[in-house]
Amino acid sequence: MRKEQFNFENQDLYRKICGINDEGVKILEKQLEMDIIPRGNGFQIEGESAKVEFALDFFKKLEANYRERPDRDFIDSFDFAYILKDAGKELRKKKARENEPERNTPWKPSDKILTTYRGKHIFPRTRNQEIYFRSFQENLITFALGPAGTGKTFLSVATACRFLQAGTIDKIILTRPAVEAGENLGFLPGDLNQKVDPYLRPVYDALNECIGPEKTQEYISLTKIEIAPVAFMRGRTLSNAFIILDEAQNCTLAQLKMIMTRLGRNSRMCISGDSTQIDLDHGRSGLEKVVTLFKNTDQIGMVFFGKEDITRHPLVEVIVRKFEEL
């Protein structure tokens, strides 16, 4: 058995880690499989030598990742679990003496993406989310593929709101195919927004979370936010805009070509989807074909999310893994 003391430089971080009634300590004890006692400015840890060594490395990584985030609202079990996995990967990589440049370097979080209308700060929470956010700034088109709950839609909307508030763009354009119901939009009741609303509800939820329902409706009325199905993009040039194509796995090759060629001056485009949730007939989805076609193309970024990026309830990661086993 080995006993060590780890002291945090940042006392605010230490308090956030401990949580209310030391709930954070209980989570850490379970995840690190050792006794952890809050003492002084940090933790006294006791356990097997290898586990203690790993815990010390974990605390150093936790402190390093959050040193530049003094305004972070909270630290929860997802953050612990993700950084724990990341620390474990780093340990295994050191032992294997691997040296892949980007994926094997320690993940360091960036500045916040956005402060919501409620004052909550939105940050990338995983390495891939950080790469995703960075891609929007470095590339004109960003593809994002991965399972549900990895932040593809929410982070693209948050980044679009950031660009709009900064005056980098003039409008946000939200679009997606409407195929799940197997209905023709022309036969559905209501105006265009009412026809498309049910299909874009996740995007509306993200907008309401970021800028609030009132500002969302105001921007829609001022056409600073435009919502339309993919078919209505034909023949247009989309300039000074942040275009988000959601559920792109339900687009055909022709539709993806059409939407990508709408890109105008000073615009950014996000194309996101999950190839395991295709509602089209077999072989009709064009997403994976397009991703393969444009791999390693300048100004086009590719981000591939995995189960480790799921930020919804931990059970969602288990559900995704079980379905992959079928």
UniProtKB/TrEMBL annotation:
Q: Pfam families, from UniProt?
A: PhoH (PF02562)
Where is each PhoH-like protein domain found? 122-323
Which locations, inside or outside the cell, does it occupy?
A: Cytoplasm
- Is ATP-binding set as a keyword in this record? yes
What PANTHER family does the record point to?
A: PHOH-LIKE PROTEIN (PTHR30473:SF1), PROTEIN PHOH (PTHR30473)
Q: Where mainly found?
A: cytoplasm
Q: Which GO terms describe its molecular function?
A: ATP binding
Top-rank taxon of the source lineage equals Bacteria
Q: Which UniProt keywords apply?
A: ATP-binding, Cytoplasm, Nucleotide-binding
Q: Which family does it belong to?
A: Belongs to the PhoH family.
Q: Does the keyword RNA-binding apply?
A: no
- GO CC list: cytosol
Q: Under what name is this protein listed?
A: PhoH-like protein
